[in-house]
Amino acid sequence: MNTVLAIINGFRLTLRHFFKRPVTVFYPERRRDVSSRFRGLHSLARDEEGLEKCVGCGLCAKICPSFAIEVMAAENTECDRHNNTERYAARYVIDIGRCIFCGYCVEACPTEAISMTPRYEMADYRRDSLFYTKSRMLPDAGEAVQQCAQKDATTAAGRLREEGSPWREDHISVRGHGRSRGGD
Amino acid sequence: MFEFVLIALVKSVVVLVALLLMVAYLTLMERVVIARLQVRVGPNRVGPFGLLQPIADGIKLLLKEDVIPAQADKFLYVLAPALSFGAAFATFAVIPFGDTVVLWGRRIPLGIADVNVGLLYVFAISSLGVYGIIFGAWASNSKYPLLGGLRASAQMLSYELCLVFSVVGVLMLSDSVSLSDVVAGQSKVWYVCLQPVGFLVFLMASFAEVNRLPFDLPEAENELVGGFHTEYSSMKFAMFFLGEYGSMITTSAMITTLYLGGWRGPFFPPVVWFLIKVVAFLFFFIWVRGTLPRFRYDQLMKFGWKVLLPVSLANILVTGLVLACIG
User: Fold this and answer.
1) Closest by CA position to B126, among listed B160, B149, B152, B155
2) pLDDT, tens digit, for every residue of B96-124?
């Protein structure tokens, strides 16, 4: 008898659901609001003067559990000045195809240079567009910085900083963390 | 004679086309209803309200590669889907779906054939449908289909027994195995009121007969991959699919005819009433799928032999006693 009642109850429940409004969000036309703490694509920050907050310490690369971040630091020079500290990130690449969006890099950053945005649509047709370089994650610089940037395009550091060279084994040593790469 | 053949031919073509269309849209209905039962929306992208979805599915299936396993028994492998498909639709031949209509001065009964052994024909054909599944399972020469096929044969044979026994009550009331007589016998009172127990047994047994949840053990996708049709692809798979949904429709039509007064009903024309009742039962089939989990195999056999069969036998006994006392 109990079984029969349970079955009838089940039928009542599913029929109630039948007349409910579906919870489906029609995705490409509408998008769900994400939580304010959503961990999406990374972004790099500038300070009030328009200088880069990143000092190229590489802590984010070191803590990254999926080895998705590559940082190459260089010295700031008189004309090639990116911030008021000694060093800056000449090359900063996140392989978003490897990233697991854990947010450890954000926690590790001592200067709060890296943060995560709510952007979650990062699918692409080409693998190399999954490498997010500094220029894709930094907001536009102020004018003063841009003038200087034109000059340093000729310097060695400037050439290095430009995106392009995809992930290569020999870059790993540059990242400078002592962990082995597991079974990779 | 020529006229008789022609009328029968036209009727069969019309019914077959209508059935195939119904099957196509039954798949859409199933997906949408299941979705709504789960508070989703279901397919709605192909055409307005997803109405072209069955056509897209059909084209996709047709264009798929047709694989025949190297070790398969080719003859049986090809025969099986055809059997399962044919048996599902052949049943409809004896089901009356409307009153006699007068067209161009001729009286045409709606129903392809009014055979005087109608019910026996239905059960004979639906037993043939089991062969489609067993042949397909055996001919695939593969583990999962074989297991699915063994389950299918045991399940369908034991539930067919209950199916037939539960109908005996109806036959005793209508005094005939012709389905049009059964419908005629329900002009005053539907047999569902006189045979509630028989109706319930028939309903449950027919779920097992068409391999629908909660009795879909021959397929059991989570344990047997796809059961008997694991190795099938392309149009052969589609034939099994058509057969399964076709037998869903014919079973609904049978329940309607045997217990719900067939095409009888007020206000609307008979064919409309018939369709309303059939679609209601199709909805019920889907509703059950959205509600009940699958039986375990031993539960299924126990339920069939220890519950349904004794109940249907008792139903015959009681019906006979009451008829004897009244008559």
Assistant:
1) B160
2) 887 777 777 777 777 777 778 888 888 88
Domain boundaries, chain B: 2-326
What is the pLDDT, as a whole number, of residue B33? 92
Q: What is the CATH number of domain A37-165?
A: 3.30.70.3270
Contact criterion met (CB below 8 Å) for A158 and A152: yes
What six digits make up the tokens of B63?
A: 């264009």
Nearest residue to B236 (alpha-carbon basis) of B57, B84, B122: B84
Residues A9/A10/A16/A20 CA torsion (nearest 10 deg): 150
Q: Is the pTM of this model over 0.90?
A: no
What is the value of ipTM here, to two decimals? 0.72
Q: Do A14 and B37 touch (CB under 8 A)?
A: yes
Interface size A-B, in CB pairs within 8 Å, comes to: 33
Instruction: Output Rg (C-alpha) for chain A, integer angstroms.
Output: 23
| Contact between chains at B37 and A7 (C-beta distance less than 8 A) | no
Contact A131, A54 (CB under 8 A): no
Q: How far apart are CA B204 and CA A11, in angstroms?
A: 15
Is B248 within 8 Å of B282 (Cβ atoms)? yes
